Amino acid sequence: MGETFKANVIDHFNFWVAVVLMMIGLYAMITKNNLIKKLIGMSIFQTAIILFYVSAGVKDGATIPILEHHAAETEQVEAGEHVEGHPVANHEAHAINPDDYSNPLPHVLMLTAIVVGVATLGVALAVTQVIYKNYGTLEEDEILAKIKAAENDG
Amino acid sequence: MAEQYPIIVLLVLLFGALLVGLSGMVDRRVCFPLAVTALSLAVVVSVGILQQVINGGVIRYFVGGWSRPVGIGIELRIDTINALVLLTITTVGLLTAIFSFRRVQEDKTEKTPLFYVLYLLLIMGLSGMVISGDAFNLYVLLEVSSLTSYALIAMGKSRRAATAAFSYIIMGTIGASFYLLGVGYLYLRTGTLNMMEIHQAILALDGSSSTIVVAFVLILVGLMIKMAFFPLFGWLPNAYSYCPSSTSCVVAPLMTKVGVYVMIRMMLTVFGTEWVFENLQYAQWLVGMAIVAILAGSVMALAQVELKKMFCYLIVAEVGYMVGGAWMANHWGMVGAIYHIMSDAFMTLCMFLAAGIFLKQAGVVRIDQLDGMFRKMPVTMAGFVVGALAMIGIPPTCGFFSKLYLIRGGMESGHWGYVVALLISSLVNAVLFFRIFEIAYFGKKPAEGHGHHENHSTVSVIKEANVSSLVPLLASAAIIVLLGIFNSDIVELIERALNGSQVIGMNVLSGKGGQG
Amino acid sequence: MPEVIQTYTPLWACLTALLAVIPILLLRKESFLREGATFVAGVVMLGFVISMVPEVLSGKVLECTLVQITEDVPIKFRVDGLGMLFALVASSLWIVTSLYSVGYMRGLKEHSQTRFFVFFAVSLTATMGVAFAGNLLTLYLFYEMLSLATWPLVTHHQDKEARGGGRKYLAYLLGTSVGFALPALIFCYVKASATGLEFSAAGFLAGTGIEGSVALVLLLLFTFGFSKAGLMPFHSWLPGAMVAPTPVSALLHAVAVVKVGVFCIIRVFTGVFGLEFLKTLDIAIVVSWIAAFTVITSSLIALTQDNLKRRLAFSTIGQLAYIILGVSLLEDRAVIGSMAHIAMHAVGKITLFMCAGAIFVATGKKYVSQMDGLGRKMPLTFIAFTIGALSVIGLPPTGGLISKFYLVTGAMDAGQPLLVTVFLVSTLLNAAYLLPIAYHAFFPKDRQLSSQPFSWKSTAEAPWAAVLPLCVTSILAIVLFLQPQVLLKLASLMVGDAG
Asked: Average pLDDT in the C15-29 region?
């Protein structure tokens, strides 16, 4: 039991943190009454996933994946080769060892994901503003009550 | 030039959006012609792509020339199936753009350029989703299309448009995030984001990895939210019925269908059918859920009094058709599901265009306000009738043939519950649409006895819609019939992708195809 | 295998009526020209049909494939004896009925006459499509087209009653065709798509190895699925649909719609399963008894109806069940009889319906009890009525006798004395609900009426356009008695192939 616990939890604690954060976010999105709090939950949810990706690209003792000047003798190696530095990448004897660098691809992907997240939040906040203009409140139950009242009138 | 078509179709729309945005600041009137031009070009290019695929097999296009396996290139990969879906998307986009002409004429606010920018970006996102060969790139395009659709929906005049858009944002983000997480797991296990390479890696793993299972489930759940699969459809009816007509006409036919398409793409290309149907024992469950979706969607549609709401619940049922067909693990079920993506896109387009025209010309929101429409708007009703017959499944419309293939798949694979559900839903559709026809034919209050003599003199103020609204409606009706008449050619193209080497890992399905 | 000729004539025959829609719409302001267009289309269509008769009679089959709509199954026309027989009946009676509808619609100053003639023409297209359908898919396509095209005709009056009748009409016809016939069709498609679902004397299901209970379920799905045939318990749309204007009732509910139903069922028996295959399966007797039940029950109900059109409607249900009963006996003579009965009953029943309409136009009377002594006012109409009634009962000198003779001898061949009794009892019932009407029209119960001397001057017939057609059809009923050879030859072609 101890073994599996170590393998599942300790070694992968970064995943578990991400999962816990996600659940917090999901909880807020579904149960909170205030629309802004829902959006905060949404941001937590997205950030958790970003964290998950980024932590997956980390290696022990590795550095940022930028070639230094003394690597001139390996000119023929394309930059792309390094980007491929994932677990099943080839380990041919290059002057530059991919293990020395943390995997940049997840980071790059998450730059995109962050942009997407910001854009989503922007749209969501704009919509929230419209809702506030329409209904004068951001509490979900009050909005629902107003919708119901409007339906009964109409 | 021709080999650059895959990226051109996206760039035309992307730069079209940019140009519309910039020139719209100078003069609002140029937006409409610019948008229509961009979409027409996109349609032409997607026809070209389809021809290329038919003649020359699968297109693999590496953006920026960064070819695989070395490099970080994003691949666009087009076989006959997604060439067809791409053409569907651009065509629906063009038709709805033409329909939106009225909106421009009457729009007194500054929002016209914004509308067309978002509109073109939406079509771009959807087109990109179907031709992308890269799982993460697909996520980005998914979010592009989702974000634009959130904004488009929130532009609705109704006060409830904003609240509907808000709940759509919340649900949509959950869905997209699940998908992203699933792709993350796939990446961890396989070390690549290219769909073909993921598939190779999964084959090499010999189906033993639980990470892959988790990834698949996450992706599936994420997509199910996006495609409004029962019971995750809660966001759909409000979002699609309170948004502006020209938005609902593009969002309703395309968003859910593209979601289904991506699911099928994941099953066929990424995870592979051997893995999906043999390693996972989910098929029975998913067909079962599809049955529930079909029945629930139909029953809820019956309970609606508003026209657009009714169509929305029908979409829920139709999604059930496609998911069930895809998960039957049968050749004909898969063919039917893919064919239905196309036919349902045009059927839904036809329905929503008609609903938009009714709303604009006669202020119709509820079904019972449609009284006497056959007399008042005969051309619109003619188009609507064709769409409705397709929804019921009367030959020779495409709706009949998608049902034919789906039911054939259900019978061959022994999913009798699905067959029965499909038939019940056809009957419910018949009830729904003939209820509308009856109201539109008779008028609201049938007079006793020989009341028909007075009907003549009733002077109506409601006039037939103008050309820019009727052309897309009649075009969609014509496409519905043409899709039906030429269904064997389309099915042949779908089968070519399924049986040939175009989609890998179809052994499970193609083995059952020859049975007769 | 019979010799096959490739020709597009069946397509032209079918399209004539559809193309007639254009002039009808264009000439909607000129009612005279508009009806002229209908009439011309009818004559042209009959011409096309007759031009194919010699070849069909010589045992050949005419075919044309329109589109290869699915991989194995095309949309295809194929004219054989049965299809030709039905097409002849439908196209010749269309001409008569268009003349009649001119008289009727004008006489009553009905509204929306253009719409009426348009859908009338579309319905005829669908009927011809069913008659010439070469495979099950084509048959189903035109069957559904007919259901939809006739709905505006049934609900023509657009009042509350029409609404109810129309609702019932669609609920039954669409409900059964989608609920029963469609799954049966798809089942056939799954089992036998390689045969192209093409009708053949041996039956395309014969080689598929289906047997026993599956075959029985399939047969019943088809029999109830094509509920235009009005087999109980899916019959009640037919009396409901009598709210339609009388020309519609006449053509559609004596000729096109209901006969399409039985035609489809005969196709299922002779083309889908094949008579020989059904004999080995030994399941058709179930259908026979359902039909026998329908024959007796509907005749009894007809006795109690006072509304003339409703009485005729129930009579139709019974006569349709004759046809189904005949074919389900699987004996050559019974099958010939049931095919011939399509024609004989059509001619007889259309006469009766047109008489009912003429009475309504001339006097506004709908109920049997009001028609006492009316024969003295409308002698021609009631003479025609009597001939029509004789034909439906199956008495000489009318064509009804011929088909009934074949049906009864077929039942004897089949060794089913009980079913022979059913035929005979129902004949008595037919006489009981039809003849008194004719009798009391000429010899009223009311003494005062009968004591008046008859004179041609006191007659008040309906407009000539309404009377002439019913005279024509009643003469036709007698002609068919004297010259039934062509019909019987066409019908026996179908049986000869099987043997």
From this structure: 81
